[in-house]
Amino acid sequence: MELTPASTAAEIIAHLRTLGSEENRRGMLRYGIRIDRALGIPHGVQRDIAKKIKRNHERAFELWATGIMEAQFIASVTADPKRFTADNARAWAAEFDSWDIVDGVSDLFVDTDHWRELIDEFAADEREFVRRTAFAMLCWATVHRKKEPDLTFAGYLQLIEKHSDDSRNFVKKAVNWALRTIGKRSMALHAPALALAEKLAASTNRTARWIGRDAARELSNPKTLERLAKKSMS
């Protein structure tokens, strides 16, 4: 079946089912990905499908409603961020049950006008995958929102510190990811991010200490510093 922008949600799902792989599903388990809703289709293939079918906001919600992981990722790529509301984001985030769908869909949330509001709200949420969403969004915003002033991201270091004691695996890894990403955005952000990493590394809290040590290691790496120096000169 050749997919086109005119393809219906039902046709896309039928095509996805022909691409599923049990071997890929088992491989996903090794990375801590839940597979009960997954067909086992590589992300590259999913992105290729999204490019073929192009953006269709209504169809994206039909794809999401199937509950199939790959269909939900494709939904996030083909939804219209200008029409995607904060309530839409809340509803989708409430269904998150695996780190990979969080990280994939968070990219859409960052493209909406509500991204800052959602980061704060999701970080305050006690649900593990919703809180992870806040820090995944922070990572994507740091990378993709190039026109946003560095001061915005410097302000989020306080949020990182606040949740650096959350020992849940998928939260602490996202908090660490956000700290490292902010520190690598620019020379201006590197110093305060590294300072926070070193502060956390000296913490009496085990989780904060792990986050800080790992981030400090990367932010102090000569290759990281070299890339930042080149970026600041370009």
Task: Produce a short descriptive summary.
With 234 residues, the protein is an all-alpha fold. It contains 15 helices and no strands. The chain is 70% helix and 0% strand.
E-strand count: 0
Indicate the low-confidence ranges by residue numbers. none
**Helix-strand sequence:** HHHHHHHHHHHHHHH
Share in helix: over 70%
Strand composition percent: under 5%
Q: Give the distance, in angstroms, between the N- and C-terminal Cα atoms.
A: 46 Å
- Give the integer mean of the pLDDT values: 96
Structural class: mainly alpha
List the topology elements.
Elements lengths: L8 H11 L2 H8 L13 H11 L3 H9 L3 H10 L7 H8 L5 H12 L4 H10 L3 H17 L5 H6 L1 H6 L6 H15 L3 H15 L4 H14 L2 H12 L1
Provide a descriptive summary of the structure in words.
The chain is an all-alpha fold and 234 residues long. 70% of the residues lie in helices and 0% in strands. The chain has helices spanning 9-19, 22-29, 43-53, 57-65, 69-78, 86-93, 99-110, 115-124, 128-144, 150-155, 157-162, 169-183, 187-201, 206-219, 222-233. The longest helix is centred in the middle third of the chain and has 17 residues, at 128-144.
